[in-house]
Design a protein that fits this description.
The complex is a heterodimer of chains A (482) and B (413).
Chain A lengths: L1 H7 L18 H25 L2 H17 L1 H5 L11 H4 L37 H4 L2 H4 L2 H4 L8 H4 L14 H6 L11 H7 L3 E2 L5 H13 L6 E2 L2 E2 L22 E6 L2 E8 H7 L6 H10 L1 H4 L12 H13 L13 H11 L11 E2 L3 H25 L4 H13 L21 H4 L2 H9 L1 H7 L1 H10 L10 H13 L2
Parallel strand pairs in A: 1-6
Antiparallel strand pairs in A: 2-3, 4-5
Helix pairs in contact in A: 11-16, 12-16, 14-16, 19-24, 21-22, 21-24, 22-23
Chain B lengths: L1 H10 L8 H9 L10 E3 H4 L1 H4 L2 H22 L7 H10 L4 H28 L13 H24 L4 H15 L5 H9 L6 H32 L7 H10 L5 H4 E3 H26 L24 H10 L1 E2 L4 E2 L4 H20 L16 H23 L21
Antiparallel strand pairs in B: 1-2, 3-4
The chains are: A mainly alpha (482), B mainly alpha (413).
Chain lengths: 482, 413
């Protein structure tokens, strides 16, 4: 503005030599010097940030501690700087686990003690875990979660506020979800990526427990799991891949009053907050396993009264079911994964995939002995109580539990999804009961009584693949409990 | 040493010419400075007339070119690797985080400042020739409109390259806007994506456009744009001197209203470049460029938003879509074609239909241009309102929320 005003009043100037001119804008030079100064400061900050990253502080501290524990000579041999584990086949191109830049001690023996901070400690090796999964091949994130390439704690652990779906499973996270253990258990989810078709795997106690429950309750009678099962509930084969945006935590939360769900007046999110659980899919599953109808009031899934531990175990199991591109030679029983793929593509008929038990022979022996020692005593009791068909009824009871009937029916425990079966042998004739067990589909289509029951209960009874002999045994069991 | 000094002097120019001959020669004898006129009017030099928005825009383009070329050495345009090379740039490459932040911030700022530059030119009536028979400012305004489009396209194509959720879904939204164009929509989308969905083919298309095709186009257009300014006799405000002299019946003496480009203009342009650089550096130090989860076509974030400079378009599409229980009229035609098309065409021809007197050339808010300025101002305000509204008030499912009352979306853990 100043210069404009100045030239608007044409001053009749003092005669100047024609060739010489006045530099009216000389002040700009000063500003350029000022900017140069500011830019120099900024550049300084940029250099500082590049030369003194967070990981260098960790390495400095590590050297101090390791020199005390291992001696200077040994520490001098350790490569410092950015360190990484790279396995292109497993991790993919341009992906590398740089966790070992700060966690230098993981593969250095002698740093086990409690006096070494957790960051620098030697990786524990329970059950020879690391012998089967060598660190330099498997890396870290495949088991622990987190962002591979990152080099700051916040990013690498994918702490809150970092955009990443599968964060590092830390003890803090377990505290949020109220796990009681002091050891890391949530990472067992990641074990199950490769050990999906195994059970009783050493070190996977939570997942093992969940798989036992799954087999006991026969979840597959209502859900497709591993590509096979009933279609009353949703397909859970890749439940872990379901987007978190699909879980509506703002829907109303229901409480069960007199056996019926009633709106509690607050949302699922409020319920999570009330219980001190994070607003997450993990919490959603915990609440859902506790009482399915509190989330979906129309759900026909029974209430199982799972313990706190069981709820978490089951949540971990369903969230571990993901479709991942892990090379087949890293998978346990790759042929079973292959079978699942073929079933999905419709090239193979849907069929159950049996889980391989990894129970060590010694463990198995103990269990067997236990079973043997218990079985006769029970049988004798039974024999004393009743005679004749009691052996068959005993087999029927076992089948009743194993075939998943308990998921929907009780005997004298009241109505669940299906009717209470106490006294059913008096209500209906034997032929009707047997055909209902063997061919529920055609019964529910044609038989007037079965049709009426379906109308009343709303949930069709699935075909459980029971053989005629087994059906006979189940009938005996039901009759014995009349 | 003497010889070396002489060579250096021939290659460069003097910042402090001791006389007029030297000052003139500094421009005429130098290849780069040949862009500039030998003399520049005082009012062109003013801070408050032009705010130097064009120079700022070009400075940002220079920063983008320099940082962009370095980033090209580090980035791999592959759907498998792109994301991870960006992570490496942020964490492992020396100064990588800084380069990427600079590039990101300069890109956003460039869109912003090119738009501001356009607004300034309109409000000052700087696309008018002002009676100067040599000037052709309407054409330069049209070139400028295309430069704005090139800037938007450059920014848009660059948006996809990190191949994260933000990139994938912003580009998907943008591509869907193109798809909703009647008749041509599908072809246009196919041409953009190189297939039916955003994948490797799209990435390599966008990459090539971003690093070669569009910068080359922009460079050619901007060179013409700036040369045109020199041919037109400087900024439009310079016409005022001649108009005034004509009215007063005086003869203009160059020394009364101009100074030499060297050092005044060159130095101030350099100063503006430094200020721009400092601002971008400061932003880069304060705030990191975002990088979300790796792109996942099977998981749509809610809400998925276009890049901010296309949000007005997305919002326009949303509000021109009419939903009734019986039928739905897609906003693609009205919101996606008709309104933006009319706006652009009106922008192109507005200098030719602007019949205000010569006196209105290069004057902020000249009274004779009330109608034009109000029309343009209201349009720009409306677009800005749509952008801000879509940015802060559109939550999940494109529903309206207060910015602080967005319902939280659950994490996985």
């Amino acid at each position: 503005m100043a210069e404009e005003r100045k030239e608007q009043k044409p001053q009749q100037p003092v005669k100047k030599p024609a060739n010489v001119f006045e530099d009216k804008y000389w002040k700009d030079s000063l500003l350029i010097y000022l900017l140069g100064f500011i830019l120099a400061i900024f550049t300084g900050i940029v250099f500082y940030r590049t030369w003194f990253p967070e990981w260098k502080k960790y390495q400095k501290e590590f050297v101090k501690i390791a020199e005390k524990k291992l001696g200077k000579e040994k520490v001098a041999k350790i490569d410092l700087g950015i360190r990484q584990i790279w396995n292109k086949e497993l991790m993919g191109p341009n992906v590398a686990d740089r966790c070992v830049t700060c966690h230098i001690g993981v593969d250095i023996p002698g740093l086990e003690g409690d006096d070494v901070p957790v960051v620098f400690r030697t990786h524990p090796n329970p059950n020879g875990l690391l012998d089967k999964h060598p660190l330099n091949k498997f890396g870290c994130t495949i088991c622990h979660g987190g962002i591979p390439n990152a080099l700051t704690k916040k990013e690498a652990h994918a702490e809150h506020g970092v955009r990443w779906l599968w964060p590092t499973y830390t003890r803090e996270m377990q505290e949020h979800y109220k796990f009681e253990e002091d050891r890391l258990v949530m990472l067992q989810m990641n074990c199950n990526y490769c050990h999906r078709f195994e059970k009783d795997v050493p070190g996977m106690d939570y997942i093992n427990l969940a798989k036992d429950i799954m087999i006991e309750k026969n979840c597959q009678s209502c859900h497709v799991i591993d590509g096979y099962g009933g279609n009353i509930g949703p397909n859970l084969t890749y439940e872990g891949d379901k987007s978190h945006e699909m879980f509506d935590i703002h829907a109303p939360y229901y409480v069960i009053k007199n056996g019926k769900p009633e709106p509690s007046g607050h949302s699922i999110a409020d319920e999570m907050k009330k219980r001190g659980l994070p607003l997450s899919v993990f919490s959603w599953h915990i609440l859902h396993f506790e009482e399915p109808r509190s989330i979906t009031p129309t759900s026909s899934m029974p209430t199982y009264n799972f313990s706190e531990k069981e709820k978490r175990a089951l949540t971990m199991l369903v969230m571990s079911w993901r479709r991942l591109d892990i090379p087949s030679r890293y998978l346990s029983h790759p042929e079973k994964y292959q079978l699942l793929r073929l079933m999905e593509e419709g090239r193979v008929k849907p069929q159950p995939i049996e889980y391989i038990s990894l129970k060590s022979s010694e463990q198995a022996k103990v269990v067997q002995e236990k079973e043997e020692s218990q079985a006769p005593s029970e049988e004798t009791k039974e024999v004393k109580k009743e005679d004749g068909s009691s052996a068959l009824a005993e087999k029927g009871k076992e089948l009743f539990d194993k075939r998943g009937c308990t998921a929907c029916h009780t005997v004298g425990g009241g109505r669940l999804v299906g009717p209470d079966l106490k006294g059913v042998t008096a209500r209906r004739d034997k032929k009707w009961i047997l055909s209902m067990i063997l061919n529920p589909d055609s019964m529910q289509k044609n038989d007037p009584v079965a049709k009426k029951l379906l109308e009343e209960y709303g949930v069709p009874m699935p075909n459980q693949g029971v053989t005629p002999e087994e059906a006979e045994a189940i009938y005996e069991f039901l009759k014995a409990n009349e | 040493m003497q010889k070396l000094n002489e060579w250096w002097r021939k290659l460069t120019w003097t910042f402090a010419p001791s006389n007029k001959v030297e000052a003139t020669k500094a421009v005429t004898k130098n290849f780069i400075l040949h862009w500039f006129p030998a003399r520049v009017t005082f009012r062109s030099m003013s801070w408050t007339y032009s705010f130097w928005l064009g120079t700022i825009s070009f400075s940002l383009f220079l920063i983008l070119t320099i940082t962009g070329i370095i980033l090209m050495f580090l980035y791999i345009p592959s759907t498998e690797r792109a994301y991870w090379t960006i992570k490496d740039i942020q964490h492992v490459v020396s100064f990588g985080w800084f380069l990427r932040n600079m590039h990101r911030w300069a890109a956003h700022l460039m869109v912003f400042f090119v738009t501001l530059h356009m607004v300034r030119v309109f409000f000052t009536g700087a696309f008018k020739n002002g009676g100067n028979p040599d000037a052709n400012r309407p054409v330069n305004w049209a070139v400028g409109m295309f430069l704005l489009v090139f800037t938007l396209l450059l920014s848009y194509t660059g948006y996809l390259l990190p191949w994260d959720q933000l990139a994938l879904w912003a580009i998907t939204i943008g591509a869907n806007i193109a798809k909703s164009v009647p008749v041509l929509g599908n072809t246009l989308h196919y041409l953009m994506a190189g297939g039916t969905q955003i994948d490797q083919n799209t990435l390599i298309r966008f990459y090539t456009l971003h690093v070669i095709a569009l910068p080359a186009l922009l460079l050619v257009a901007v060179s013409y744009h700036m040369w045109r300014v020199r041919r037109d006799g400087g900024l439009a405000v310079s016409e005022q001197y001649k108009l005034q002299a004509k009215k007063e019946g005086k003869r203009l003496v160059p020394d009364d209203y101009t100074t030499f480009a060297v050092p005044a203009l060159i130095r101030r342009a350099f100063l503006v470049f430094l200020i721009s650089t400092a601002a971008v550096m400061l932003l880069s130090l304060i705030s990191n460029a975002p990088l979300e989860e790796p792109a996942d076509p099977s998981w749509t974030p809610n809400p998925a938003k276009a890049p901010w400079y296309f949000l007005w378009l997305q919002e326009l599409l949303a509000i021109t879509t009419i939903r009734t229980p019986w039928f739905t009229i897609n906003g693609g035609f009205v919101g996606g074609v008709v309104i933006p098309g009319i706006l652009f065409l009106w922008g192109l021809i507005v200098p030719f239909i602007d019949k205000s007197p010569d006196e209105a050339t290069g004057v902020w808010f000249h009274p004779s241009r009330k109608l034009q300025n109000w029309t343009f101002g209201l349009i720009m305000l409306f677009l800005a309102f749509l952008t801000i509204f879509a940015m802060y008030f559109r939550g999940p499912s494109w529903n309206i929320y207060w910015p602080w009352a967005w319902p939280p979306i659950p994490h996985l853990f």
